[in-house]
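Hi everyone, sorry if this is the wrong subforum. Our group has a chain we'd like a structural model of before ordering constructs, and none of us has done structure prediction before. Sequence below.
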Amino acid sequence: MAGVTYKDAGVDLDAAERSLTAIKRLVAETHGPRVLKDVGLFAAFFDGHFPELKKPVLTASVDGVGTKLKIAFATNRHDTVGQDLVNHCVNDIMTSGSRPLFFLDYFATGHLEPDVVEAVVWGLAKACKENDCALVGGETAEMPDMYPPGEYDLAGTIVGIVDREAIVDGSRIQAGDVLVGLPSTGLHTNGYSLARKVLFEIGGLSVDSKPEGLDGTLGEELLKIHRSYKRAIEVALQVGGVVGISHITGGGIVGNTRRLLPEGLALRIAWGAWPEPPIFGLIRSIGQVPESEMRQTFNLGIGLIFVVRREWAEALRKALEASGEPSYVVGEVVRAS
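Answer:
Right subforum, don't worry. Here is the predicted structure as tokens:
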């Protein structure tokens, strides 16, 4: 009788090796001259010499895609969630004025399917290239009994850099500053647990449903890619007058932007001053979700907010428009009552 192997226990090392071979090309396409070694060693190597910066400061963030992955499983489409992850992380670090340098991912599943892994990494690589960010490595873990068949988890870490003198942290925000918002593509990567409960459990819809008002199936709507705001942030920082940048994720417009405010200040949001994507109205209607809950859970159509000096707001909006980026005045900073 043959002895028990690792494969008998549910871990297929050959499948892992096939996956690595398939994704090496995708990963290499994101590398520039600062990446000093190919994928495959125990660590990644990135040139840390930044002579153009007086006082370089590293920035970092880690995040996941959340239960949006459930939509990827239901539609059997896996090429978008990697883009969601990279773009989310890029937006997070760029709120500080940073630029992204490199990204690492973590992919964990119960049974490794090389085609699925390759599709996910294809999305990661695509977004890294679009954001001028190197995909320098990651971890692919096969853990039997940890995940249901056909499911996986995905997370990532990004590292960026900013000159200490150029850090944007909200500390200079004052009453009278204007909030300039940029549109989202939909839910981005937040609020999916509530959205799925309302749309699928209460509403009885499926990923193949085509509710009125949407421009495709519900699955396509819910898989719309979390936008990267990298180009818009670069434009805004060149214009000047930006004293805070808020990435609208879990917690909504108020919850995220309020984090930037110095003590004694508050937000006055001009609700309804921008077009709201139809998906939010669908969730609100089917679930009879209170407006306070909608505002706390979802971005409601605004994915990023610049806090800008009032005298610079119009110049900022014109520059954004010239770059092809629509914007909306979504409120202002006021003294707390």
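For your construct planning: The longest strand covers residues 152-163. The chain has two domains: 13-166, 178-335.
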